[in-house]
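Re: that chain you flagged

S.,

Sorry for the slow reply, it's been a week of failed gels. I finally had a moment to sit down with the sequence you sent. For the record, here it is as I used it:
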Amino acid sequence: MTDHPYTNADLRATAAEVVATAIQEITPSEIADRMDRNYVQSTNSGDGNRRTWAQLLNRGDLDTTEFLAARQQIDDLIRDAADVSEWAIQLGAAGLTPHPAMAWQSTTGGYDVAVQVATTSMLTDAARDELITEIRKAVGETVYRVLGLKPVSEAAA
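Prediction finished late last night. Pasting the structure tokens below so you have them in one place:
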């Protein structure tokens, strides 16, 4: 028992709820504000010509059709995202770091299976790399045997 009338589990549950609610309650206007400030990842070529969404889509003072369409697609992705807030809070509380997802793609272009691995920072780089490689291999062999799917490259996952 702690000196508080709540437990660590209570703190984590509330933190997960706050994260999930923040994501669920973001407005289209807030998304547009972030698009105005955030750089588009594909424009980060290292030559200093990074562009925000507004710059990329030549947005002036008025919302363009392309900008609004991109904002709507981002909003749809947010609404359709899996709620992993509890998992993320538990990872942080345990001091674990997530690694790129492993995904197995169906013939329809979507994913049928995805696995996320997180490890402690206490692992050496070599141990972490070997562990992730072996997990990828074991899950990949099982997914191929059961579903006939091959893994997607890490860059696409």
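What I noticed first: The chain has a mean pLDDT of 85.

Talk soon,
D.
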